[in-house]
Specification:
Elements (H helix, E strand, L loop, with lengths): L1 H4 L7 E8 L3 E8 L11 H12 L3 E5 L7 E7 L4
Length: about 80
């Protein structure tokens, strides 16, 4: 998490949520900082997106209207 939170000014992690539905795991992390500039993909965020893609998942970054930054990952769970 430290790499994700080093990307810009922030105060602290606001919320961290990990969920599964049997087919997919998702992780969301939000902070209460200043947000992120659209298109401002830095290497740490790019690396997180590449890792999610390698696992067959996806990664998104957004700045909610309330402020701060929201990082979200989804990866498929192995089929048994």
């Amino acid at each position: 998490m430290s790499a994700s939170m080093d990307e810009g000014p922030h105060r602290h992690i606001d919320e961290l949520v990990l969920t599964t539905d049997g087919h997919e795991a998702s992780l969301t992390v939000s902070d209460d900082g200043v947000g992120i500039t659209p298109g401002g993909r830095r290497s740490g965020l790019r690396n997180m997106a590449e890792r999610a893609e390698q696992l067959g998942g996806r990664f998104e970054v957004s700045s909610p209207d309330r402020g701060g930054t929201l990082l979200a990952w989804w990866v498929p769970l192995p089929v048994e």
